[in-house]
Amino acid sequence: MSSSASNPWAEPMSKPADEMKTYLATLPDFVEGSKRLDVRPTHLEHAAVGHKQGWIVTAGATFADDARTKMTGSWFCLREESLDKARERLSRDVYATGGAWDMSKATITPVAVAKH
């Protein structure tokens, strides 16, 4: 399952990262029956490749409360050519295909990343 063929983040970028648009995605897990823990090792492996390739600017988990006792989903700052392509790429992530994320509740918003 961890082959590059099944990893949407392993694909080379179509143009330089600084020419891509940037999006903030919030991807909630299914409330009942999320398969997050089942596919987490593969997701983390794939996401590391996505960061190296330049697709993923930064990302992490969302939690139910400050105690961080229960993960509720994920958030991504990612690069892509368009909003539709961002949604499509996220839909091919193993968290989406493996039953963790409820893509019907995902939000993807165009954003600008401040230069430091």
UniProtKB/TrEMBL annotation:
Coiled coil start-end: none
Q: Pfam families under this entry?
A: YCII
Query: Which InterPro entries does the protein's record reference?
Result: Dimeric_a/b-barrel (IPR011008), Sec-metab_biosynth-assoc (IPR051807), YCII (IPR005545)
**What are the YCII-related domain coordinates in residue numbering?**
30-101
The record lists the membrane-crossing segments as none
Q: What is this protein called?
A: YCII-related domain-containing protein
Organism of derivation: Rhodotorula graminis (strain WP1)
